[in-house]
């Protein structure tokens, strides 16, 4: 079975279309809102499920005001403004995150969901959202979403990979300076009426070594800013990265930990990074070094960190992310780091600046609208990426299917048997899912019966069309 694809957004030549089994097996298309969601059982029996829900296919594309959008976690006004400017007015906004049944109830009828880092879209939660078309993470991290479950349901997930990078980088450099200068302790002292006007334990960052674990967007930005303060930057990444400025790569995490005066973490939350910094890694760090974590809470063993700070193995830490974070301002924040004088604690605000949030709101809203309006999955984090021209003067069929042998040939065969001329076809697959978009000149033959047949092809996960 081929899993390859025509290049992103490329028109597949007609000859290839006719021989589509050679291209890959399961591309799908859908049009605005006219979807056929499937349950687990339905996935195993595509044909039966599609037929059962066939009446949905006969609906015309959903008008935009029927597309229900739920935005959680205080997503910025720019998102709403953009959605509205593109005709999407059926928007519900919530200030906080939801979980459990409250979340399932809230998104049961939603076609689009917008979240940040605190809303967990598990498989179970996604199973309850039968009408779901797409998810927008208005942040960088996407570990809060079961991306595989979303893909299996034919739901692309989008995020904002850069919009808060600079905000995090600025905070980290500021924290490095504060820690090396011993400011957290002096701040506490003054608040208590003390006056510790000594240079003890207070240093310049100039000439100190900053060790960056993860040299991606944020790590490399921190590198640039830290060098401008005269710091010497080293980094460790599992992928070979271009060193910026005078930064130097380390061969191993241990090598980095042994040299750095400040270690700052900039890795995603993955099975490999969970517990990346535990008691052994802290033991490998220099006596009196500092740790900064603005990545994800589970990357650091927080109890081991608390022990190291109390024993003064580490001189200080700045922590923005925690293994367990309150879902809203109403919950009490609990952590073994509370009350430690040499620690800067912030409530996961690395990316929370007005500039970043405004940029993210617009960026992710644009991706959601593009997917809804045209079917483009460019920038999706869990899905074959298909870049598409604007849908105009054509009927566009969007078919998402399991990548199993025969789906593409059945799709193309159907167009051929109905004598419908294809004016453009766009296909991208990954090992699990295929996404194919077919444009045809407006054609009466591509009516309800045809759409039902497309949706009934075994392996179909979602189907919609844009008229
Ligand atoms: N505190 C906040 O508010 C905030 C804001 C934005 C992002 N973040 C977090 O920061 C993380 C990093 O963001 P980014 O934009 O730089 O991501 P990125 O994907 O650009 O960079 C991550 C880097 O980590 C590397 N990496 C992965 N596993 C590794 C490992 N085991 N050891 C060493 N390196 C490893 C990757 O190769 C990559 O270069 C995000 O995943 C997100 O969780 C937090
Ligand atoms: O992943 C991110 O971008 C950060 O962790 C920020 O998350 P937030 O939007 O919940 O502040």
Automatic annotation (TrEMBL):
Task: Quickly give the catalysed reaction.
Answer: (2R)-3-phosphoglycerate + NAD(+) = 3-phosphooxypyruvate + NADH + H(+); (R)-2-hydroxyglutarate + NAD(+) = 2-oxoglutarate + NADH + H(+)
Pathway annotation: Amino-acid biosynthesis; L-serine biosynthesis; L-serine from 3-phospho-D-glycerate: step 1/3
Keyword NAD included in the entry's annotation: yes
Q: Name one GO biological process term.
A: L-serine biosynthetic process
- Keyword Transit peptide attached: no
Query: EC annotation?
Result: 1.1.1.399, 1.1.1.95
**Top-level taxonomic group:** Bacteria
**InterPro entries per UniProt:** ACT-like_dom_sf, ACT_dom, AHAS_small-like_ACT, D-2-hydroxyacid_DH, D-isomer_2_OHA_DH_cat_dom, D-isomer_DH_CS, D-isomer_DH_NAD-bd, NAD(P)-bd_dom_sf
Report the top EC class in one word: oxidoreductase
Family membership, please give it. Answer: Belongs to the D-isomer specific 2-hydroxyacid dehydrogenase family.
- Biological function: Catalyzes the reversible oxidation of 3-phospho-D-glycerate to 3-phosphonooxypyruvate, the first step of the phosphorylated L-serine biosynthesis pathway. Also catalyzes the reversible oxidation of 2-hydroxyglutarate to 2-oxoglutarate.
- Supply the name of the protein: D-3-phosphoglycerate dehydrogenase
Taxonomy, top ranks, is: Bacteria, Pseudomonadati, Pseudomonadota, Alphaproteobacteria, Rhodospirillales
């Amino acid at each position: 079975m081929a899993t390859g694809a025509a290049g992103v957004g490329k028109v597949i030549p007609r000859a290839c279309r006719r021989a589509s089994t050679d291209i890959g097996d399961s591309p799908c298309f859908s049009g605005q809102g006219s979807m056929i969601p499937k349950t687990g059982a339905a996935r195993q029996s595509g044909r039966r499920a599609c037929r059962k829900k066939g009446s949905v296919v006969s609906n015309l594309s959903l008008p935009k005001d029927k597309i229900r959008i739920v935005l959680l976690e205080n997503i910025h006004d720019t998102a709403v403004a953009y959605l509205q400017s593109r005709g999407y007015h059926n928007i519900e906004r919530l200030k906080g995150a939801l979980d459990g049944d409250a979340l399932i109830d809230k998104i049961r009828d939603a076609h689009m969901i917008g979240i940040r880092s605190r809303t967990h879209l598990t498989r179970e939660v996604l199973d309850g959202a039968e009408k779901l078309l797409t998810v927008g993470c208005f942040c960088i991290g996407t570990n809060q979403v079961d991306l595989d479950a979303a893909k299996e349901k034919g739901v692309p997930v989008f995020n904002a990979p850069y919009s808060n990078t600079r905000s995090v980088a600025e905070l980290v450099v500021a924290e490095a300076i504060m820690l090396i200068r011993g400011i957290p302790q002096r701040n506490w002292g003054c608040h208590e009426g003390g006056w510790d006007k000594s240079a003890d334990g207070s240093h310049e960052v100039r000439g100190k070594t900053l060790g960056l674990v993860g040299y991606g967007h944020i790590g490399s930005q921190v590198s640039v800013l830290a060098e401008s303060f005269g710091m010497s930057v080293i980094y460790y990444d599992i992928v070979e990265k271009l060193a910026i400025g005078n930064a130097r790569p380390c061969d191993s995490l241990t090598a980095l930990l042994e040299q750095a005066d400040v270690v700052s973490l900039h890795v995603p939350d993955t099975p490999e990074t969970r517990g990346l910094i535990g008691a052994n890694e802290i033991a490998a760090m220099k006596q009196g070094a500092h740790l900064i974590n603005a990545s994800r809470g589970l990357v650091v063993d927080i109890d081991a960190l608390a022990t190291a700070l109390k024993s003064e193995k580490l001189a200080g830490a700045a922590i923005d992310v925690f293994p367990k974070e309150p879902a809203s301002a109403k919950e009490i924040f609990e952590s073994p780091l509370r009350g430690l004088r040499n620690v800067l604690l912030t409530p996961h605000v690395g990316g929370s600046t007005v500039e970043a949030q405004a940029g993210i709101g617009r960026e992710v809203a644009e991706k959601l609208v593009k997917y809804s309006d045209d079917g483009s999955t460019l920038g999706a984090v869990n899905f074959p990426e298909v870049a598409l021209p604007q849908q105009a003067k054509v009927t566009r069929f969007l078919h998402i299917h399991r990548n199993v042998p025969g789906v593409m040939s059945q799709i193309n065969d159907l167009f051929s048997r109905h004598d419908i001329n294809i004016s453009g076809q766009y296909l991208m697959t990954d090992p699990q899912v295929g996404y194919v978009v077919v444009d045809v000149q407006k054609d009466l033959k591509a009516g309800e019966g045809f759409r039902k047949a497309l949706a009934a092809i075994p392996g179909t996960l979602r189907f919609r069309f844009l008229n």
